[in-house]
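Expect chain and fold; see below:
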Amino acid sequence: MMKKSIKIIKNRSDIGAGTRGSDMGIDAIEIAAINTKNDYFSLFEYIDVETENESIYNKVTNPFGKRINYVLNQCTRLSTVVKNTLEAQEFPLVLSGDHSSALGTISGIKAAYPTKRLGVVWIDAHADIHSPYTSPSGNIHGMPLAAALADDNLDYQVNEVTDEVKSCWTAMKNIGCEGTKVLADDLVYFGVRDTEAPEEKQIEKLGIKNYMVDEVRYRGLEICVNEALERLANCDHIYISFDVDSMDCDLISYGTGTPVPKGFDQHEIIAIINQITASQKVAAIEFVEVNPLLDFKGNKMAETAFEVLDAVTKSLK
């Protein structure tokens, strides 16, 4: 699988986030490459995904599913691009704005391989397993895994949602192909450390493994990643989702929408991803949530994200 040609998918959408600016993250990563005189972005074919970013000017009418109809459109569009890329025997390297896009990528992989079992490695400070029924913010970038798992966590419902949100949410769970995209047994977290009570209860109920930063450093990164791969041994394909807020904001940068301290450094991220790609099961990798508007160190977050991107791509090639 890793011998496929790489196709970069640029998805400049930030409408699932609560803070504007992650739509500029892809361009910031490209600028980081240019400033290091690296011709990375001239080496691969790419496709730009049309966005719904103009919807930010519309009044939010659904507080527990903000802009959900537009996010549905965006994820559907991205799903089609990912599916087409895989069917063309190319490897999707997805660069997205906010993390709601992960549902589109997951759905695209599942649409391309509907009978195959998909594992997910989620490298993030956040669990992103809320649904409109549990989310305190209503921002869809905190919900992609709930949609992929097709589990609304109604035991811990705190919100009354509108019929429009219910309809769009049902449609989101059926993007690409109907029903569950990922089993809870086939989801592994790395670095999750900022969660709300409904998420914590859901993680506990579903038995999802979270390799926290301290555990990875204490037990050893290679041991933990091998253990994760053993958990995903029955999966035919693996999708890796890398949110830059999995990295330590104090060490790296606050150039992301929801920065959290005490995270990984970029070398640990590279090692985690490269060890997983060595399994030869990885179907797609996605980078999300670089927000240069929030970066008080110039373009530091994008520079660090590009360092990871460049190193990971070399292992893919």
Observations:
- The radius of gyration is 18 Å.
- The CA atoms of residues 58 and 67 lie 9 Å apart.
- Residues 5-316 form a domain with the Arginase; Chain A fold (CATH 3.40.800.10).
